[in-house]
Specification:
Number of strands of chain A: 2
Radius of gyration of chain B: 23 Å
Radius of gyration of chain A: 22 Å
Largest sheet of chain B: none
Strand content of chain B: under 5%
Distance between the termini of chain A: 66 Å
Helix content of chain A: over 70%
Oligomer: heterotrimer
Strand content of chain A: under 5%
Structural class of chain A: mainly alpha
Chains: A mainly alpha (501), B mainly alpha (142), C alpha/beta (325)
Largest sheet of chain A: 2 strands, antiparallel
Strand order of the largest sheet of chain A: 1-2
Structural class of chain B: mainly alpha
Chain lengths: 501, 142, 325
């Protein structure tokens, strides 16, 4: 069967009334859960898994529901990121950079709309890529070894350093802090405890969610409470809505970001969390004329598009090889196992209704999300009409409740608060927090892969440059560090030449 | 100026602590040629260098001071909150937290109390009943 | 509905010798010492649902996640706050005993809880890529004997964890120093499988339940299963390590423990519940679907088994040089 006829079969499955209903329920629920900081897609999917089993849903239906939640949560998460500057998930941190300034300028609804469109474009194009390229792409993905990952991480860091505004020492200090925080816990390579200070709670390291909530939600509330008059109120709708021209201007950005997000998403373990940062910094390099970070629509659509494309991309190794590409796909794989369906290369041939039904439902799910979310952006933006004294205590309490509900740990809440207070002080001292967060995400990937690579080569660093892919990534990394300086020199010369002439 | 000086000193101190900690790691045997010490040490060096740079070349600009009392109030409420959850239950504890936070945001006491209690019940409903994630119940059963 | 009715009727008619039901739990909880989505979480959610649906435990059992310190936080919370709480069972697996033996659970030992029972087991396997140079376990051992550094072994656990211990035991049985193994730690079994398929590692000491898909597709081969006898079903063709001359067994037992200070009567209630669960055909079917094999060890026998295992791991850790810190 070729991809087209298989896809038709998939659409037959996905268009059954039950599956359509479940798909819709999934994306709606996902949007709601995504909007709750601290709970996030992994937990939402994990919690609903036993329910699907108990309702005795057929496996393809269960998968459609769960995948809908996975997608929907990305859409839901942008609401608090854009309107309140509070991302609930590491993948949404970049959304705040241009989203929040837009909301502050009274264009919250327009920002929500463009991010919805970006997510739709990224999600849909990525599903098209998935439909036709899943199997060969998955092969390429597993060929990525430790040395390629090291080069990729170095490239990501190289891009990261250009994100700080102003003081380079502070940006690098933020990166160092992020790296150090990520080292807390048991070291995989040796089984040694690092920076745990004898605390059992710290053995497993600092939790992503606790860090995100602390760095952004708690710190934001502290910053705001210090100046309660600068609340979020009365900025609603004072700016113009989204114009067609703006959407058109974002399209090239969306296309490029889809590519970046999808490719990074396909790589197991690496992708989804860094795709939005890479896409943003790439666009900043390519099209920024000093408006990024001040409410540029392109700066908002880049991470949103990439994030959704990466979510779809991480389905590639799961469907084609039975390997989870991210935390959430690992849970989805668990769902398949519960139905005693063996995920893996044979899924497409042995159970085409599941594989293709899921793929078809992603097309439908993306449309549903757009239809569900676009008319509601105005309503979501009204969140800002809620007085600050109800909104912010609520956000903080909800974040804490979410963290506590999945960890049942006082310690986890204390860690969140301590990180939050630290982050507040750092912000006051003009230390950027986003590089800190991203360094935290990248840290283990860089260190573990570096050590794996040298372990394979018995300490010989030549292994880091042993393949075409890794050399290419190194060249890109060096170019992205030196590029701006070289360009600046060239520009200066040209100006000098024109003056001389 | 003074803020950056303090920041630089704090970063230097953290860097020295981290570097020292890395050297004290007791590795039972070398599983890989790099080992667990190298990365923390390198990162500590980076942080130390940044700390020194910030200390000796501080940026201009002042630490803007607003309602510090309110910041302290929110912090203390957030620190105490986890310890209240178990003994008095989710709704009372969260109501206290939201009440204090609402006051910190400048609301009137009555309005703060009402919104705090309503908020807590809504969250209990959403997280415990709808998402089936158990939240701690106190003596009142909520 | 009809099914539920029948079940209820069956329960009603069930002979009264089940146990003296003087104790009934109130608001029972199953603690999963991990975040939602992991193995412990699934163990809890499935088991508690089946216990409820089959009418073995009447009040709804809710799953509570208590992640942190690879199970250490849950272990310590039970000691500190719920030592005599009869309404809670906690999921446990072989990996917990490995950690307990290495002192990673703090000052508490295996004697500080009451081990309830097992509900099933998974088994360790040694997987290689389909085109691997190794055909049998003996091939691998021969190569490791001549040059232990020439084979890259990788899995989703740290040095000292279960996945590391499996090949270490093979090396030990072959008279090679386990410390000389070239081991790459990955973030999870999935990443390790990707590395195996990509040819970055040669051997993946994973679990039987996590390699089924790739095995069925002919992407990988299994050199050995670490079970006492050959496993039934799909893996029946795979020889055990024992029959190839290396007596290494690695069942990943999944089960529960209860707080230390509950009464014997309360303990008996839960033991009885697990025993009835294991005997139920519906549960047996669900267990098989999850990729778990039967492992009926409940009550005092399980308690003795858990303690023996932990002690054995402790001796092993000391011998290999992973002594408690």
């Amino acid at each position: 069967m070729d991809s087209f006829s298989s896809l038709l079969l998939g659409f037959q499955v996905a268009f059954s009334p039950l599956n359509l209903g479940l798909g819709f329920a999934g994306v709606a629920l996902g949007t709601a859960v995504g909007a709750l900081p601290g709970i996030g897609p992994i937990n939402a999917v994990a919690l609903l898994l036993p329910l699907c089993f108990a309702l005795q849903l057929p496996p393809e239906s269960a998968l459609i529901l769960l995948a809908g939640i996975y997608y929907g949560s990305g859409y839901g998460g942008r609401i608090s990121s854009i309107l309140l500057n509070i991302p609930g998930d590491p993948g949404l941190v970049m959304t705040t950079i241009d989203g929040y300034p837009l909301a502050k300028a009274g264009r919250g609804a327009a920002a929500l709309a463009i991010s919805g469109i970006g997510s739709f474009v990224g999600g849909t194009l990525a599903v098209v890529l998935l439909t036709f390229l899943a199997v060969p792409l998955a092969r390429v993905a597993v060929s990525f070894g430790p040395s390629e990952y090291v080069a990729l991480m170095v490239l990501a860091f190289a891009l990261l350093t250009t994100m700080g505004s102003g003081n380079a020492a502070k940006t690098w200090a933020a990166i160092a802090l992020g790296l150090l925080l990520a080292m807390i816990g048991i070291d995989g390579g040796s089984g040694v405890e690092r920076f745990t200070f004898g605390s059992l709670e710290l053995l497993g390291g600092i939790d992503f969610t606790a860090l995100t909530i602390g760095l952004f939600a708690v710190a934001e509330v502290l910053i705001l409470v210090e100046r309660p008059l600068v609340g979020a109120v009365s900025r609603l709708g004072s700016g113009p809505g989204l114009r067609i021209k703006e959407v058109a201007a974002c399209l090239p950005t969306m296309l490029r970001s889809t590519g970046v997000g999808f490719v990074l998403g396909v790589l197991p373990g690496a992708g989804a969390s860094i795709s939005s940062a890479v896409a943003y910094t790439l666009e900043k390099r390519l099209v920024d004329r000093g408006t990024f970070g001040k409410g540029d629509m392109r700066g908002l659509s880049a991470p949103e598009t990439a994030d959704n494309a990466a979510q779809t991309g991480s389905m590639v190794p799961m469907l084609a090889l039975g390997i989870p590409g991210s935390g959430t796909t690992a849970v989805l794989l668990g769902a398949l196992l519960m139905y005693s369906i063996t995920p893996g290369p044979l899924l497409f041939t042995q159970r085409p209704e599941i594989a293709w039904g899921l793929i078809a439902s992603m097309y439908i799910g993306n449309v549903m999300l757009l239809v569900l979310n676009l008319p509601l952006v105005g309503l979501f933006a009204r969140l800002l009409l809620v007085p600050a004294w109800i909104l912010y205590p609520g956000i903080l309490a909800l974040s804490f409740a979410g963290v506590y509900a999945v960890s049942n740990s006082h310690f986890e809440l204390l860690v969140t608060t301590v990180i939050g207070v630290g982050a507040y002080l750092l912000r006051k001292a003009n230390v950027p927090l986003i590089p800190l967060m991203l360094a935290f995400v990248l840290s283990r990937l860089l260190e573990d892969n570096f050590r794996r690579a040298l372990s394979l080569s018995d300490g010989n660093p030549v292994i880091l440059f042993n393949s075409v892919t890794s050399v290419l990534l190194w060249v890109l990394a060096v170019a992205s560090i030196l590029g701006p300086h070289v360009l600046a020199v060239l520009r200066k010369r040209r100006v000098a030449a024109t003056l001389d002439g | 100026m003074i803020v950056d000086r303090i920041l630089g000193i704090v970063f230097l101190a953290v860097a020295i602590g981290a570097a020292w900690h890395a050297q004290t790691l007791d590795v039972p045997f070398a599983a890989d040629p790099v080992g667990p010490r190298v990365f923390p040490t390198l990162v500590a060096l980076l942080l130390g260098a940044c700390g020194a740079a910030i200390l000796f070349r501080p940026q201009k600009g002042n630490w803007e001071i607003g309602h510090v009392g309110r910041v302290v109030l929110v912090t203390v409420a957030s620190v105490v909150y986890p310890y209240l959850l178990g003994p008095i239950g989710f709704v009372p504890a969260t109501s206290c937290l939201c009440f204090l936070l609402a006051l910190a945001f400048g609301a009137r006491p009555l309005a703060s109390a009402v919104s705090a209690v309503v908020t807590s019940f809504v969250f209990l409903l959403v997280i415990d009943y709808l998402l089936d994630l158990p939240l701690p119940r106190g003596p009142l059963g909520i | 509905m009809l099914k539920k009715g029948l079940l209820a009727a069956a329960l009603f008619l069930a002979p009264a010798f089940a146990s003296a039901q003087d104790f009934t739990p109130r608001n029972p909880e199953c603690i999963a010492p991990a975040a939602p989505g992991g193995g412990f979480d699934l163990t809890c959610r499935l088991t508690s649902r089946m216990l409820n649906e089959l009418g073995i435990v009447d009040p709804t059992i809710r799953t509570v996640n208590l992640p942190g310190g690879i199970g250490a936080v849950a272990y310590n919370t039970i000691q500190a706050q719920r030592a005599s709480d009869p309404n809670v069972i906690v999921a446990v697996s072989t990996g917990s005993w490995v950690n307990l033996a290495q002192g990673k659970f703090g000052r508490f030992t295996e004697n500080d809880v009451r081990w309830l029972g097992a509900i099933g087991a998974d088994y360790g396997v040694l997987a290689v890529r389909a085109d691997s140079r190794f055909q049998t376990l003996q091939d691998l051992v021969d190569t490791l004997k001549s040059d232990p550094q020439s084979v890259a072994i990788g899995a989703g656990g740290t040095v000292g964890s279960q996945d590391w211990t499996k090949p270490a035991l093979v090396l030990k049985a072959a008279g090679v120093d386990p410390k000389s193994m070239r081991y790459l730690a990955y973030e999870g079994g999935g990443e390790a499988m990707a590395a195996l398929l990509g040819g970055h590692i040669e051997v993946f000491p994973g679990d039987a339940s996590e390699i089924r898909g790739q095995l069925a597709a002919g992407e990988i081969r299994l050199l050995a299963v670490f079970a006492e006898e050959r496993l039934p079903g799909e893996l029946a063709d795979v020889p055990t390590a024992k029959e190839q001359g290396y007596d290494v067994q690695w069942p990943i037992v999944r089960g529960f423990y209860v707080p230390p200070k509950i009464t014997d009567e309360q303990y008996a209630y839960w033991v009885d519940a697990i025993r009835r669960l294991n005997a139920d055909p519906e549960w047996q079917k669900a267990r098989e679907e999850q990729g778990l094999y039967p492992y009926d060890l409940v009550g005092a026998e399980f308690d003795a088994f858990a303690k023996k295992q932990t002690e054995a791991f402790r001796a092993l850790a000391a011998e290999i040089g992973l002594a408690a810190q």
